[in-house]
Amino acid sequence: MAHSEPTGVEIERKFLVRALPPDLEGYPKSDIEQGYLAVEGETGEVRLRRRDDEYYVTYKSGGGARRVELETSLRAEQFDALWEGTAGKRIAKTRYVIPYGDYAIELDVYRGAHEGLLTAEIEFPSLEEARQAKLPEWFGEDVTEDNRYRNFALATGRGGV
Question: What is the pLDDT of residues 102-150, one digit of tens each?
Fold first, then answer.
């Protein structure tokens, strides 16, 4: 049996996408706006996220496939009061959630400055499963360890394509 990580730790791999999967519009999707209040590389980041009509503040630290993530819901008024602090450090994307065996693929189709960028992430219960998982054919290069494709790098102009 695979070892599961403690609460607040995510095991995730990120990939570029070669081509969109068939029947994409048949999957649930959300519009996401994300902005960064603080970015300290591997030390940590604090981001705000609006997903449809839900609002969050999230702290993430670490790099690669295993990261600490702590997320708290916000009221719309709290989000709006903080959002101005993210000016110049934002991204926009549509996220599709695609079932894949025991996992869910989060496919991000970026808008705005990163129009045309497609990435997919899969979260796993352990590093072992993350390393051994069979991946869909439409996945491209593994960019889990490539900081240019982290959302904070895209939002701050430090990465991407």
Answer: 999 999 999 999 999 999 999 999 989 999 999 999 999 999 999 899 8
Cα–Cα distance, 123 to 129 (Å, whole number) = 10
Catalytic residue among 27, 36, 55, 56: 36
E strand spans, 18-145: 29-39, 45-51, 54-61, 66-74, 90-100, 103-111, 118-124, 139-142
- β-partners of residue 84 are none
Residue 21 carries which DSSP code? P
Q: Is 36 annotated as catalytic? A: yes
To which CATH superfamily is domain 9-155 assigned? Hypothetical Protein Pfu-838710-001 (2.40.320.10)
CB count within 10 Å of CB 161 equals: 10
SS3 20: coil
Nearest partner of 118 among 24, 51, 11, judged by Cα: 24
